[in-house]
Predict the structure.
Amino acid sequence: MKIGAPKEIEPGEARVAMTPDSALQLQKLGYDCVIETGAGEAAGFTDAAYQAAGVEVVKTAAALWKAADIVAKVRPPTATEAKRFREGQLLISFFWPGQNEKLMETAKSAGTNVIAMDMVPRISRAQKMDALSSMANIAGYRAVIEAGNNFGRFFTGQVTAAGKVPPAKVLVVGAGVAGLAAIGTATSLGAITYAFDVRPEVAEQIESMGAEFVFLEFSADELPDGAATGGYAPPQSPEFQAKQLAKFREIAPEMDIVITTALIPGRPAPLLWTKDMVAAMKPGSVIIDLAAERGGNCELTKADERVVSDNGVIIIGYTDFPSRMAAQASTLYSTNIRHMMTDLTPAKDGAVNHNMEDDVIRGATAVFGGEITYPPPPPKVAAIAAASKKEKPKELTPEEKRAAEIAAFKAQTKNQVTLLAVGGALVLGVGLIAPASFMQHFIVFVLSVFIGFQVIWNVAHSLHTPLMAVTNAISSIVILGALMQIGSSSILITLLAALGIFMAAVNIFGGFLVTRRMLAMFQKS
């Protein structure tokens, strides 16, 4: 079978669904590759590079659609491209089936199967095919770069002979893939970064990247669980939205750059940054709205335009951020396509096995076998396991705490007394039949075992890993006893003493070597 990638005809779209590297990998799966001439030029991939990778280059889009059994695209097919659908052909692209019912009907009528890369379920096994995350990662990074291009000052603070430059303050609204990429980029450029998300469980991720989580006073019990929406932020109650907007109004005057990324699948983008918030910002501030294609999170956003407000705030609503980094975006997207083809070709024989029992393939399939299969059933494995609500432990009164401590002390004392009594009885029993010379050594041995047990047992378990190396080395003082016995006239005692010295030496030196290696892990070379 042949897999081909046509040239994208949407204005400003520079990405391509197949690169020379991905073509080589597809050929290992048994496919022949074909591409339309000039399809990769805007992304920096020449026709000569494709030919060197063994890809057939055809002159027209019509010839490409006719030759290819599998067509890989970036954007959904246009009306012109949809007329080229044919029976048994497989289309893999961003498709947005929820907003393209007419296109699904066209594919159904033509007998074309459709895999929508935007419908890949967000489960662990499908991460390598998650094109939405790949593109969102680029969009988040590029948003910060675009903000820096329009912002009139440094991101990082500086103290120079010419004066002091304060660091820029950046607010990222929404901590999904795009938001986290924006946070990481802004932080690495030296900005003071703040981030907000309606999912409190992402606060640790935000803080681990060096940003400050904007905390909203709201009961966690009143927040919908993000697990029900596959990890996306779910719709919020009017009360929560009101408090959220109030918080944004409070911090708007302090922010230099605002990057909004909030989107809910199948819904218009929620309005998060209103006109009065824009009016409260300083002149020269920048707003990057990554939700512009779905209406925008900012009230003044215009899709694909750069707008300047009355008070000098720059609002950017570009919808082609991944395309502005076409080479990188094409490389990642073509890799997502290649992984999808790997799952579709388990035998690596160049033939598609469209297994509708597979969660990933079924979830991404919009049209199959002349039937519309959208929406797919929920995956058998949840994207994010819903967090079980744990009951808070009952607070004990001082009297109850005191009673519990006394009971624990009594139980511990009882166990120790019982252990000592049993041990004493055993030692006494051995002493009735053993000679006095043996008992002298035996009692020392029993006491050393008991003391060693008490020392090690009372060390907290969390400290065992680093502490045991040192403890073993120190406890190997037993080597001294073996040295005293090695000169015995008994061959058996001499052999046992030699064996004891050898094992204790291994313990001592091994303990110090382990300790040294562990300490080296915390030292810079």
About this structure: The chain has 17 helices and 17 strands. The longest helix spans residues 398-433. The two ends are 54 Å apart (CA to CA).
